[in-house]
# Entry
Amino acid sequence: MPTYRDSGVVLRTHKFGEADRVVVILTREHGKVRAVARGVRKTRSSIGARLEPMSHVDVSLRSGRDLDTVAEVRLVENHPRVRADLARVQQGLSMVEAVDKMTPDREPVPEIHEMLVKGLRTLDTDPSPLVLGAFFLRLLALEGRAPSLAGCLRCGAREGRFVFDVDEGGVMCPSCGPGQPVSDAAIRLMRAILSGRVRDALAEGDTAAAGETSAIAMDAMEHHLERRLRALGSFDRHL
Ligand SMILES: [Zn+2]
# Structure
């Protein structure tokens, strides 16, 4: 069986058979792979301890027909400050879950891989409440689903008050469409994030605009994943 090496982030794991565990890893060069870690639930396996969701690892894998097999694992980053803080654990798990739902098997997605590595690292080093929201907005942008913030989606107005409509995927004036009121400050923050000025946005701290931005990012991501799931469901039915 050929063996290959790669680095990646563990997205999730589940029990397999009596003593094994299947790990789903988003690798840099091979995309999302599923691999069996043999015997890790029977012994006090150090391999098992390194293969926790969110861990950034270097792995050596033996190719198999359905599942690869984990031959060796080296931990690159374990994100200790994330693991010590339940709120950050939940945010990190939301990152890997969204990425898992958005990525196909065995298809390299180097930009998403890099974004996930950086997102988890930022979650570890930066306590900004906007880390997850910024991650979601940028992930949506990579998928071509960035919220539209240039002006009212319906009439094009660029001034005045706006609401955010998650179904339409952007802002509208209150007279043009329904939606949640969104402040100018939150729109500015979202624009900063989407134009790559993430550091500036993360420095915002725990403000009302940061809270609005996070809430919109969560809604937009949830909406995107649901639509994706529905699209996949109808695709399956046609097979
Ligand atoms: Zn309008």
Summary: Residues 152, 154-155, 157, 172-173, 176 surround zinc ion (CB under 6 Å). The two ends are 31 Å apart (CA to CA).
